[in-house]
Amino acid sequence: MVALSFCYLAFAFEPSPLQDFCVADPTSSVRVNGLACKNPTAVQANDFFFSGLHIAGNTSNPVGSRVTPVNVAQIPGLNTLGVSMVRIDYAQWGINPPHTHPRASEILTVVEGSLFVGFVTSNPDNRLITKVLQKGDVFVFPVGLVHFQQNVGYGNAVAIASLSSQNPGVITVANAVFGSNPAIAGDILGKAFQVDKKIVELIQSKF
After folding, report:
1. Proportion of the chain above pLDDT 70, given as a percent
2. Fewest Cβ atoms nearer than 10 Å: which of 41, 50, 142, 191?
3. Domain boundary assignment for the chain
C-alpha cells in the first residue's frame, strides 16, 4: 500500500526526463502529455535560448500590467524539464489580476518597485495571505491557489517569476467566469455571486 502511494506521488507533477533533453517538436502529429521530441541530431543552441526579458512590456491596458512568458512555447528545450519563467511589468497601481496556475507553484522576485501580493487558501477557509514586497524580496504562490499582485509604489514595477512547469497554464478568474465562450448563464452567475442577473450581464459585456 505504501509503495502504491509513492507511485501516485511520483506522478503528481511532471515526470523527470529519461534522457539529456527532449526538445519540443511542435510540427509532430504525435499526441502526448507534453510535446513530442525533435530528433536529437537536429537540436541547435537556439532550441534552448530566448532573448527579450530586458524589454519592458506594454502596460497600457485595463489592468495596467503585461506578462512576458518564457515557457516551452518560447524555448522548445524546456520540454520535459518542468520549469519556466515570466517577466511581469506593472504601471503605477497596475495589477496582475487574481489568477491561478493549475500546473505550477510560482516563486516571484521583485526587480524594481513595490508590490502588494497575496493568495487565497482553498475552501472552506478562503484565508487571504498578503505581503508588501520591495526590490529584492521574494514570495511564493502555491500551486493552484488564486493569487495576485498590485504595484503600490510611485513608479513602474518589474518582477521575475519562476514556475515549476514547462507549461504552467493560467486561469484569470474574471476572464474565465465572465468571459467564457459561450457565456455562463447569467442566472447561474447571479446566484453564485448573489447579485442581480443584470449586474452579471453588465460585467460580462466588459469581457
Report:
1. 93
2. 41
3. 13-168, 170-207
